[in-house]
Design goal:
By secondary structure, the protein is mainly α. 82% of the residues lie in helices and 0% in strands. It is globular and about 40 Å long.
Amino acid sequence: MSDRIEKLKTFLKDAPADCFLNHALAMEYVKAGDEVSAKKHFELNLNNDPGYVATYYHLAKLLERVGDTENAISIYEKGMEQAKAAKDMHSYSELQSAYEDLVY
């Protein structure tokens, strides 16, 4: 797994703001159990491109796992707003379902 992490880091040196690469790296960190690094890359994505909808679900799930429920709820809400703005109803539905499971 660290091989994939190192490859993604190398790619990111040339394109540090690439949302796809940052998201992929964050997911590799999640698999490796490194939630701090994963969170850093998910947040970097949201700072670089708040419209990158895929990041909201995975960041919120990470926050749920570490017990940061308040921030997870906020991320789900922001993600639903972005998904709705992008007319991405599939992502909106996934975010809404996860949000409702957490809140209700």
